[in-house]
Specification:
Blueprint lengths: L5 H10 L4 H11 L6 H5 L1 H11 L2 H5 L12 H8 L1 H13 L3 E5 L2 E5 L2 H20 L19 E2 L2 E2 L5 E2 L1 H17 L12 H15 L1 H11 L5
Antiparallel strand pairs: 1-2, 3-4, 4-5
C-alpha cells in the first residue's frame, strides 16, 4: 500500500481524536519501511534516482507505508479512502454508473450514458483522487468497452464473473504435467509448499467458476506426491 504512508496513517488516527504520541505509536505499529540493499549502500544515489528520474520505488524506501499482508492494512486503507470513495460514488451517479473499489483498483461500470461521457468522468475522477493526496496509475488505466473482454482485478466480468481462459489453461497445463511427469519439475518458480500453492490456485478458480474448478480438482487428485 505505497500510497498510504506513515504521515497519512498518523493523520488518520489524529482525526479520530487520539493524542500525538498515540498517533505516532499506532502509525509505527501499522506501517513498515521497505528494505532495499541498494538503497542502504547508496543513499545519495537512491535520492538522485527519485528526483532526476522520478522513479516511484526509490523514494518509497524512505517512507514507511502500510505493508501488504498485514491484517491491519486493508481496514486502515479503506478508512482513509472513505471520503474519496464517497466523492467518486457521487461522481459515478452523475453518469448513471456504479463505482467500486478493491484495494487500489477503482472501477466505474455503466451503460450508454457512461460510454458517452467516459472521457469527462476520467478527468473528474483524476482530479478527485489528486485532491485526496493520491494519483491514478495511468499505465494501468483502461477503458474497456462492450464487445471486448472486460477484466476487474483479474476476473472477467462481461456477462458473468469468470476466470480468463488463459489463466485456466495455464493452470490446467501445470496440473497435466504434474500428472504425467511428476510435480517435482513443475515448480519452476521454487514456490514453498508447491502442493498447497496449487490447491490455493484451484480454490481461487473454483470460487469464481465452480465448473472449471471441479475439472481442476479432479486433475489435482490424480497427482502422485
Amino acid at each position: 500500500f505505497p500510497s498510504f504512508t506513515f504521515r497519512r496513517v498518523a493523520g488518520y488516527f489524529r482525526s479520530l481524536g487520539y493524542g500525538r504520541g498515540t498517533c505516532v505509536a499506532l502509525a509505527n505499529l501499522t506501517t513498515f519501511r521497505l528494505a532495499d540493499a541498494s538503497v542502504k549502500r547508496s543513499n545519495r544515489n537512491a535520492r538522485k534516482l527519485a528526483s532526476v528520474h522520478h522513479h516511484p520505488d526509490a523514494m518509497r524506501r524512505w517512507h514507511p507505508e502500510l505493508p501488504q499482508g498485514a491484517p491491519t492494512s486493508p481496514g486502515i486503507a479503506n478508512a482513509i479512502a472513505r471520503r474519496m470513495d464517497k466523492r467518486l460514488h457521487a461522481l459515478a451517479l452523475k453518469f448513471g454508473a456504479d463505482y467500486t473499489r478493491y484495494a487500489d483498483d477503482l472501477t466505474f461500470s455503466g451503460g450508454e450514458e457512461l460510454a458517452k461521457g467516459v472521457g469527462r468522468l476520467l478527468m473528474l475522477a483524476r482530479k478527485i483522487v489528486k485532491t485526496e493526496g493520491l494519483a491514478l496509475n495511468e499505465n494501468k488505466t483502461r477503458i474497456m468497452r462492450k464487445g471486448r473482454q472486460q477484466r476487474v482485478t483479474g476476473v472477467v466480468v462481461n456477462q458473468q464473473t469468470n476466470v480468463s481462459r488463459r489463466d485456466f489453461d495455464k493452470l490446467k497445463a501445470i496440473l497435466h504435467n504434474c500428472i504425467k511427469h511428476g510435480p517435482g519439475g513443475q515448480n519452476r518458480e521454487s514456490v514453498p509448499d508447491f502442493k498447497e500453492h496449487l490447491r490455493g490456485r484451484i480454490a481461487h478458480i473454483s470460487h469464481i467458476g465452480p465448473e472449471r474448478g471441479r475439472k481442476l480438482k479432479a486433475m489435482f487428485e490424480q497427482i502422485r506426491w
